[in-house]
Amino acid sequence: MNKGDGQAAAWNADTQLDGNSVIYLEEMYERYLEEPDSVPASWQQYFDELPQVNGHGRDARHSQVKDYFRAYAAKPQAFVAASSGGSVDLEHERKQVKVLQLINAYRVQGHFHARTNPLDENAPRFVKELTLEYHSLTEQDLDVAFNTGSLFTADQMKLRDIISLLEATYCGSIGAQYMHTTSTEQKRWIQQRLESIRATPSFNKEEKIDILDRLTVAEGLERYLHTNYVGQKRFSLEGGESLIPMLNSMILHAGKKGAVEMVIGMAHRGRLNVLVNILGKSPAMLFSEFEGKYADTGRTGDVKYHMGYASDLKTEGGPVHVAMAFNPSHLEIVGPVVEGAVRARQDRWAENGYEKIVPVVLHGDAAFAGQGVNMEMMQMADTRGYRTHGTMHIVINNQVGFTTSASIDARSTYYCTDIAKMVDSPVFHVNGDDPEAVVMVTQLALDYRNHFKKDVVIDLVCYRRHGHNEADEPSATQPVMYRKIRSLPTTRERYAQKLAAEGIITEEDAKMLVQRCRQQLTDGIPTVPHLLGKDEVQNPHPVNWKRYVDGSWDMPVDTTIDEETIQRLGEKLTIVPEGFKLNSRVARIVTDRKRMAAGEQPMDWGFCENLAYATLVEEGFPIRLSGEDCGRGTFFHRHAVFHEQETGETYVPLKNLSPAQLPFVVIDSLLSEEAVLGFEYGYATTEANTLTIWEAQFGDFANCAQVVIDQFISSGEQKWGRLCGLVMLLPHGFEGQGPEHSSARLERYLQLCAQNNMQVCVPSTPAQAFHMLRRQMLRDYRTPLIVMTPKSLLRHPMAVNTLEDLTERGFQNIISEIDPLEAEKVTRLVMCSGKVYYDLLEARRKAALEHVAIVRIEQLYPFPEVDMCTILRHYPNAEEHVWCQEEPLNQGAWLSIQPSLRAVLGSMAHLEVASRPASASPAVGSSKVHAAQQQALVNAALGIIAES
Q: What pTM was computed for the model?
């Protein structure tokens, strides 16, 4: 085949190419130059047949040519000096380009060749791009001086010295993976920090002894527990002890740089060690937990390796408050919770909060790569509503997941940290058996976070000396790995020997550190030398949770407002800036709201909800509302944000009530439920006086965040004593639109209810929503509020209220019959919640059934027993009692509310249910079948016999 044939084959391989395909062609050619087999055979043949460049064989990649000119821009004087001696040596210049390509290769791929794996230090991966041959260089070139380009070193060096610098910088105990980032400034910053010191730690004698001391207490605690509490799970840190000097250095360095708080989230691996040797938890307290000596708080409590803790530590820059977040066994789910808690703290400090509060999230290697919540969390990193200006991510890389091999089954990427490349975060892989490198890279990473306000990842490559827990036998599934692990000295032993060889300490000094640690543990005293007492620290932003500890859900509270307030705030909510063009439909809504505020038109849901927010902000409660479409509202009802139709500008009336008002924040979130709800939970557990709301686009979207609901929202108070006033708004209602998005799965929340852990409400009027939101904040009571919010009711002509409903009465747990029935004539009492009430009311009125009364139970849990008893006394002749629901029999409230109803009705009362038949799916797909089912359950509830 001649050259023309090859060219034709290549073009035939992709007939869509045209004059606009230059970028595609350049990328294809770049791939070919780097790895010929990476392009299709037809293109490979075409590129092979291209004429040689100046007779020298393969062309240089365009990216490498660009690097040459970048290097010239960085050090033009070096290039001028090199070419000032007369005629230009073309061969030397060609090799100069190759040297620059080699430098770039080390920056891009040196981490693959780095000695970061303590289990395989002496056999790093072979990387051909780092060889002389790959770049057409030879041994004879090693003693030739070349320009060093953009390297942070002398302008000219011999090639062997350049390679020595590159090997030390990029192929030692630290593997720096950062060239994927798009910012040249950030890349140059990292290069300067690493290359100028050859990535070589430089610590003085005291700092090295401190590192050894932290390794000693880390190892000492694990050995003490292993000896004294045989067979008990502790999820040991052994093999990853460098985490302790890492975190210790991070806290001290953060304090020196101005941080005042740090929030740490981690799963169970190494947690006990961090609690004792970083946060200063008393060993005596930990040992009591191992011995089962828990204080009886009346709560369920939790296992010791899920518990949180907080303390204050002394640093050069002042005290740092360090908090460890409580965490269930769902591994990575604590990450977004920490981010929410950090954002709440940063908001307290206002504009410089990111400098004061540092989030630290620890991950397992298998979990970091495998759990999708990490992707959701990292996508939050630079978004308006969830930004914390940089998180320190630490991966405790045990190189195995329980029994799953990291190399073949745990992931598809080369590194467990490759998810970080998605958000342009640099990754520093570091050998856990080189604690000095660990501490150095920790300080570098923290400085990067502070400087660029971006996430950064440290991959602490280590191993797990025992199995998943201490009773496990790891060699059953990883025999080769654990044969190697058993032969290794511990990190502390290796480092002690290193310091002894340097003359820093003696063998006796190292033994004394071990003995001191053992004595501290025996005496049960803290092992952290810079621990501060609570009376030594003044918190400038205190949060008072004590007032909520003994609160009760039924404590009386006045949520009414006066008519003047409605009119005044209603006017501010409908102000549109001059020249601000609204969408025509939104303009009509604003006009209607003006009439509602004046009492000229009944109030709808959107008006009452916005008015509730306005009153709370005015009364001293900041508001944070987030969800995928919450600015406008999925169902076009809220319109908390106005959008100018020509410019796209936005205006938020709730932010413009008064010059000195408290914040109102409304965020259209990223398309995430799990991470966003976790974030809002973390925020709500940190801020007692902020009304924190998460709204699902549809109620069943919360399915994707079930772990947050199960492990935090419903049980956090019982397990950890964590109070939380989070509100979840879940659109719910059977509208004949099919199985999806009909049900918010009310039954799941009610099944989780016990010990007054949550409130579950189904408000049926705008006024009820108004009072419910205000009640949530005005009471000295903080418990999660789950709300089944409506869809069609948002514009139902009967679901409206008058001004008197806001000024004269508050939230009603149960709404009694509204029609003027004679109570003595009522023999059938129908109880329901939500939208079905209006169908029942319409059908009852149409059939003129004066013996049937309908009541709405607006709060399903805690069940309002007293209110229900009052209703029953009002109807002394009622003999038939019916619970009516739209949901299928096995769903909805029936199965959970039945015991409460029977308790107030008495054992002899007749109680039946009217619902859809039991179903594996929430709803049918046919609107006609839906309508027939709806009519049938309404008729059954009212006792109407349908005509055949």
A: 0.90
